[in-house]
Prior knowledge:
Blueprint: H1 4-15, E1 25-26, E2 32-35, E3 38-42, H2 55-68, H3 83-96, E4 100-104, H4 107-118, E5 124-128, H5 133-142, E6 145-149, H6 154-165, E7 180-185, H7 197-206, E8 210-215, H8 229-233, E9 240-245, E10 255-259, H9 261-270, H10 272-275, H11 282-297, H12 299-318, E11 330-336, H13 338-350, E12 353-354, E13 357-358, E14 368-373, H14 380-396
Parallel strand pairs: 3-12, 5-6, 5-7, 7-8, 8-9
Antiparallel strand pairs: 1-2, 2-3, 4-10, 9-10, 11-14, 13-14
Helix pairs in contact: 2-11, 3-11, 4-5, 12-14
Bound molecules: pyridoxal-5'-phosphate.
Amino acid sequence: MPAHFIDQELSHLKDTGLYRHMSLIQGPQEPKVTVNGKDVILLCSNNYLGLANHPEIKEAAISAIEKYGFGSGASRLVSGNMELHEELEQRLARFKGTEAALVFNSGYHANIGIISAIVGRGDIIFSDKLNHASITDGCLLSRARLIRYPHKDVEKLERVLRETGKDSPVHRFTDSPIRKLIITDGIFSMDGDISPLKELSELADKYNCMLMVDDAHATGVLGSKGKGTSEYFGIDNPNIIQMGTLGKALGCFGAYVVGSRKLIDYLINKARSFIYTTSLPPSVCAASIAAIDILEKEPQIRRNLWDRIEYFRTGLKNAGIDTMASETQIIPLFIGNANNAVKISKHLFEKGIFVQAIRPPTVPEGTSRLRITLMATHSWDDLKYAIKTIEDAVKNVCMQ
Ligand SMILES: *Cc1c(COP(=O)(O)O)cnc(C)c1O
């Protein structure tokens, strides 16, 4: 087999500090974990509310396995649509205050499925440059024209919307109007800043575009009830397609989209990553239902997260560390050079702090960083130790 390119590519990745490997986490997901045999403070999990090992969620999953077994056996449209799938969807719609919801097997599935179902060849997508990779992949899969606007730059976006509005409003192939979609992360996954959703919502209405927000990191975190970016800004626009995930703050697995009953019926018929895949195990749905219950009855968990965000960001700021534009539980430490980012990450690991270096292609060239993520369950002592240790590491490691 002519696999020479594999050796070449691997050594290139190693030379440039871009080689990736997996760390082994032993035991459950907790604010402190054992990694490759070493006990460390976990500062790079998206289990923001610490629900991944919550007793009520485990109990819900176990009971569901006892009642329904494990596998679902088929896709939703064949024979894999079980009671817990529909119950989770009703629960999500109620939680988000929308007519209907649809569950996908993951956020990646949701994004590639939704985007490629609502736009196609000849249509136009306006996507924030820092949107998640799964959004970009969905855009490419749709074969619509992809315009990536500068990060959060609503003025530039409006200029492009105005220009493209002059093009023929009618589709080259189908004679129907061209569809336009603005799409944005709610909380940007590698920068921790929040999308200007209110302005985007106004632009979408003004220029007759669809608008989709990816609340992967905002679900359970933003808004007074944790409903996500729309709630945070007090936007009540039923036309926004709100997607989010169940595997991050909710500590479970899977993803959802909420909107009108019509939108959901359309996606059931058109979203290929929904149609052509085995549905989630029912126990996974039961876990997510329990997680939403916890979210609603224990708002203190979210307050605990936000108290830690405030404390940690202030601590780093006082230490003179560049946390970029972070406004949330995702706190990047700007390093720049990929090799230096890896070096600091390794040093921190030695000191008992587990945080990953995030490098291209996940982030733009020259913007490598440590991406710290906080959890509602981190102890104050651990966070205090982490701030001090990070301060020393950032100031010393790269100077050697
Ligand atoms: C993690 C993430 C996804 C993918 O969700 P999974 O359920 O992990 O597949 C999609 N969008 C954003 C912004 C994410 O951060």
